[in-house]
Specification:
Helix content is 19%, strand content 46%.
Length: 145
């Protein structure tokens, strides 16, 4: 079986690090022991058709992420529903990191990384090789007018 042929175009498998950003800030301020920062490593799927970061409910609970309301989601098969949002998700991918909000999906086992994360971290999907890489290896480049 040809793995390259079986993978959907525009989707790349990655490993990412996650943490509770509020815990990280408390640890930096010296009010929380660094070993008490809630963290997780998780497989992820980078999907150029997705918009936001999506996390499994179990991981959001493990990290103790604060609620940030809810959002309407539309799945690839056009079904819609409402899902909770959480905030202060620290994500590290390809050596770059930032804090994000995330959609919480109850039955998911991996993370889904959408366009907002890719834009913020200045990462590019190479569909031909199905790899993810920084647009500029030395720094994040922000485009403005």
């Amino acid at each position: 079986m040809n793995q390259q042929k079986d993978k959907p175009v525009g989707r790349v498998l990655v490993e990412l690090a996650l943490a509770n950003y509020q815990d990280m800030l408390l640890a930096q301020a010296g009010t929380l022991a660094p070993d008490k920062v809630r963290q997780a490593r998780l497989p992820g799927i980078v999907d150029t058709e997705a918009t936001r970061l999506v996390l499994p409910e179990a991981v959001a609970s493990q990290l103790g992420l604060a609620a940030a309301g809810e959002t309407k989601v539309r799945y690839a098969d056009q079904r819609t529903t409402n899902r909770p949002l959480v905030r202060d998700v620290w994500l590290k991918l390809q050596g770059r990191h930032a804090a994000f909000t995330a959609i919480v999906e109850p039955d998911r086992r991996d993370a889904l990384i959408g366009a907002i994360v890719l834009e913020e971290l200045d990462l590019v999907v190479d569909c031909a090789t199905q790899t993810l890489h920084p647009r500029d290896p030395d720094r994040i480049v922000s485009e403005i007018e």
